[in-house]
Amino acid sequence: MKARVKWLEGAAMVGMAGDAGSEHAVVMDGPPQYGGRNLGPRPMELLLIGMGGCTQFDVMQILRKARQQVSDCVVELTAERAERDPKVFTRIHAHFIVSGQGLDPKRVERAIALSAEKYCSASIMLGATAEITHDFELRDTAVSVADAPPR
């Protein structure tokens, strides 16, 4: 896998995926005190977003294979960083909000555990410096008879 990051101006830069297949670009920027103009997320924010995307992808794949009827999945991430340089992540919490019909909480819990312990490269890598925790909530999207529109 290759990537390229090109400086634009101030603290702004553009990152481009190379031979990974996507060849997409993302603008990043630093904080105003370092010349940033808020043109894009900070690089550390992208690391956190990347971890969220990685674990969500795994969880959705596992739940699909388990024939769970998932209609939506949101991962809300909160992180703490060290006060001194290097300001690595020290704690990360991932809160999954999984919506669907008749979801089995044990299968959702297992999917999250499998991602955290076996499949999500990003969270396993970040786990070398950060304590990573997870929890989840289920939202049933089944329409009850009382909620159905009148005929």
Automatic annotation (TrEMBL):
<dbReference type="InterPro" id="IPR003718">
    <property type="entry name" value="OsmC/Ohr_fam"/>
</dbReference>
<dbReference type="InterPro" id="IPR015946">
    <property type="entry name" value="KH_dom-like_a/b"/>
</dbReference>
<dbReference type="InterPro" id="IPR036102">
    <property type="entry name" value="OsmC/Ohrsf"/>
</dbReference>
<protein>
    <submittedName>
        <fullName>Peroxiredoxin</fullName>
    </submittedName>
</protein>
<dbReference type="Pfam" id="PF02566">
    <property type="entry name" value="OsmC"/>
</dbReference>
